[in-house]
Every structure is written in structure tokens, then in C-alpha cells.
């Protein structure tokens, strides 16, 4: 009988079993390492593309707009002691820009959303209800409240979150205001 439980097993049986077990473990380990390396590579590539193609251009544009309108507002404040319509306009633009978040104007990542939907189990929370996302929404709510508290009384009440089109209009307003002041701003 060829059983490992025999009293007198074949002498060559144990090394073959060990060899098969080791081979199986190395195969499984190699497979796992390959999967992990593939995921890390895809994750890094996705981050690099998103950062270069979405994050940096949007962040740079929004930062430049905030810097320009801040400089214009400071210039107008130092130029005159009285409140002018130009200064009021600059403050309104600045206030509007302060309320813009990256998440308001970044394009929706449909591929990431689809991937998340595919990997949800029946027991998982629905998309958008993770603890991390709930904390982010709570923080954004606090930011909105702070924005309302610090906004000037002349600013208009919020009509919802800003959109990409709102940012384009704000940029056009900055360019028009700088042109009116005789400043040459390169968009």
C-alpha cells in the first residue's frame, strides 16, 4: 500500500512529496508576487497620469488665478482708502475663487467609479458611503460653513458648488479687470 501512514513507507516517497509541496509553494508565491507587482505598477502609472494630466494643470490654473486676484485686490486696497466698484469686484472674485475645490472642477473618473462598482460585495457599503468619504464630506461641510462665515456681506448667497464653467467665467472676469486696470496678465 502506498500511504504516508504506513509503518514502512517507500523511502523515496517523502522527498517527492516535499519537492511537490515546495514547487507548489514557490509557484503560488511567484504568482502572488507577480499580481502585487502588476497592481503596484498599474497604481503608480495611474497616479502619474492623473497627477500630470489632471491634478497639476488644474491646481496650477486655480493657484495662478487666486494669486493674480489677490495681488489685484492688494494693489487696489493700497491705492485708495475708499471702496470702489473695482475693489468690490476684485473681492467678490477672490471670495468666489476661495470657495472652489479641486473636487468641484476635476473631471469625473468614470473608469475608477466603474472599477469600484465591480468590486463591491453584497455586504459592502454603497459607493460614496465609505468612512473615508463620509469624513471628507463632513470636512467639506465645515469648509463651506467657514467660507460662509468669512465671506463678505456683499457676496451673493451660494447657489451650489462651483463648476468648471464658473471657474472659466471667473478667469474671464480676472482678465477683464486686469485689462481695465491696465495690467498685462498672461493667462
Describe it for me?
This protein is mainly alpha-helical. Helix 1 packs antiparallel against helix 2. The longest helix has 67 residues. The chain is elongated. It starts with 12 loop residues before the first helix and ends in a 7-residue tail after the last helix. The relative contact order is 0.10. The mean pLDDT is 78.
What spatial form do the alpha-carbon principal axes imply?
elongated
What's the rounded overall pLDDT mean?
78
Question: Uncertain runs with pLDDT below 50, 5 residues or more?
Answer: none
The helix-and-strand class reads mainly alpha
Instruction: Tell me which oligomeric state these chains represent.
Output: single chain
Sheet having the most strands: none
The fraction of residues assigned to DSSP E strands is under 5%
Would you count the extended β strands for me? 0
Radius of gyration: 30 Å
What separation lies between the terminal Cα atoms? 86 Å
Task: Give the number of helices.
Answer: 6
> Portion of residues in helices?
over 70%
- One letter per element, helices H and strands E, the order comes to HHHHHH
Topology:
Layout: H1 13-79, H2 85-98, H3 102-105, H4 110-118, H5 131-150, H6 164-180
Helix pairs in contact: 1-2, 1-6, 2-6
Tag the structure with descriptive keywords.
187 residues; mainly alpha; 6 helices
In short:
This protein is mainly alpha-helical. It is 70% helix and 0% strand.
